[in-house]
Amino acid sequence: MIFNSVTFVVFLIITVVLFWTLKKHFRIWFIFLASLTFYGFWRWEFLSLVLISTVADYLIALELGKTSKSRKAKRRALLFTSLIVNIGLLVYFKYLYFIVDNINFLYAVTGSGQGISSIPEIILPLGISFYTFQTISYSVDAYRGHIIPEKNFALYGCYVTFFPQLVAGPILRANEVMDQLRIRPKFQLSYISEGLKRILYGFFLKVVLADNIAPLVDEAYAIPVSQLSALDVWSMAFLFGFQIYFDFAGYSHIAIGCANLMGIDFPENFNFPYAARSFKAFWKRWHISLSSWIRDYLYLPIAGAKVIDKNKRSKGGLDTSELKVEVSQRKKDTSLFTTWAIMGLWHGANWAFVFWGIFHALMVYFERKLRFIRNRVPFFSHPFIGWSVTIPLAMIAWIPFRTQSLNATFSMYQKLFYPKMYTFLSPKENIYLVTAMLFIGVTISYLLTEFLVPQTKKWAYLAAPFNVVKYAVIIILVFTFFRPINQFIYFQF
Amino acid sequence: LGKPRGDFKVEPYTGISFKNEEIEHILRERDIGFDKMEDEALMDKVVDQLLDAGVVGWYQGKAEFGPRALGNRSIIVDPRREDAKALLNEKIKKRESFRPFAPSILKEHVSEYFEQVDDVPFMEKVFDIKPEKHTVIPAVTHVNGTGRLQTVDKKVNPRYHRLIEKFYEKTGVPILLNTSFNENEPIVNTPEHALECFLRTKMDMLVSWRNRPNLRGQFFINLYLLRNTIFGINAQTERPIIPQRYEENLLALAEILNKAEEDGIEVLLYIPPIRNDVKIPYNLENYESFKAEVESMTKEYDNVFFKNFEGIVPGPLWGTKEATSFLAKEELDFMHFQFEGHRILFDSLSNALKSLMK
Question: Is A347 among the catalytic positions?
Answer without folding.
Answer: yes
